[in-house]
Amino acid sequence: MADSVASGLEGVVVADTALSEVDGERGRLVIAGHDVEHLGGWRTFEELCAELWGSVPGATSAEELRLALGRERAWAFEELEWLGRALIAPDGMDALRGALAQLPAEGSAWDLGVRLTAATAVFTAAWWRRREGLPPLRPDPEAGHAEDLVSMLRGKATTHRASGLETYLVTVSDHGMNASTFTARVIASTGSDAVSAVVGAIGALKGPLHGGAPGPVLDMLDAIGRPEVAAEWLERELLAGRRIMGMGHRVYRTRDPRAAVLERAVERLEKEGHRTPRLDLARAVERAAEDVLRRKHPDRPLRANVEFYTAVLLDALGLPREAFSPLFACGRVVGWLAHVDEQRRTGRLIRPESRYVGPRPG
User: Fold this and answer.
1) What are the structural domains of the chain?
2) What percent of the chain has pLDDT over 70?
3) Dihedrals phi, psi of 36, to nearest 5 degrees
4) Could you report the per-residue pLDDT of 280-338, keeping only the tens digit for each?
5) Catalytic residue annotation
6) CA nearest 50: which of 28, 67, 65?
7) Which of 15, 42, 319 is nearest to 170 (CA)?
8) For residue 307, what are the CA distances in angstroms to 59, 85, 107, 248?
9) What residues form DSSP beta bridges with 20?
10) Which of 5, 11, 211, 304 qualifies as a FRET site for 320, CA 20 to 30 Å off?
11) So what's the pLDDT on residue 127?
């Protein structure tokens, strides 16, 4: 029995992985051997997915994966009528959890990975459209995955929307041993199936301390409204004991590198003529928040995390804030599945210990 407890498993290494590395001190993220700054905007979703799944038996090329994802999106769309009440849940993560749990768990690791990735996109889009009183839109099996996800949400995707969402999905595809990934690996370590692992991971991602802050970032920007009042507004929030949304990260001691990738994606939209009015405000709020937080917590670096510019980018793409967390799952599902495969290859059940502090028998 351990003499001390690592609260939150802080500093505890639970696995060797070849999938991603998070360097919190230097603000660096490596995914599949690439710095995240060299992935966003340079790799397609299918290319990145093929690299993360390279060790999965049955792995194919990015082009073959694009076609397979298209076929599985078409299959998932035909399954919508059999999902019962799952996709009318008020919360998108509840809807995803209930819908994906009904998928068949039989098949090879590769086939299940493609099916789960495709279905996550189809079910996300169908949930949001039904929430808005709109009929789900049929996927295009010939389209790229990111492009088709935009089209299923909003109608035929423009080039800038497809490219912007692709950058987002690639950027959030994996991030070390985060809470949802660890959940997926624990489930996989028991010998359970990939569907169960992904459903469990979605339950973890739903938590506001993990993946639930992009929407509230927009609420904050809406409330501030003008750059000149940002510092005053932020100071009032801190005095009231509330968090500044999109600032600070459990691991990073500097700016989240994914924030930089997504900020540049918004810049590209502007250069292509797609005006994004929230970008200037967001940058002003980020600067003000850094200053206010530095004065309040001089020994605790709190800078922009991935959620800050996720909100700005997805909003600029015309995607609904209610779908931000399910869209996160649409990107992260490929990382979960890669970790499921990696964990299975270790053949080791994850079984930590606990220290009993309750009453003893009389």
Assistant:
1) 19-209+322-346 (1.10.580.10), 214-316 (1.10.230.10)
2) 99
3) -60, -30
4) 999 999 999 999 999 888 888 888 889 899 999 999 999 998 999 999 999 999 999 99
5) 249, 307
6) 65
7) 42
8) 31, 30, 35, 10
9) 31
10) 304
11) 98
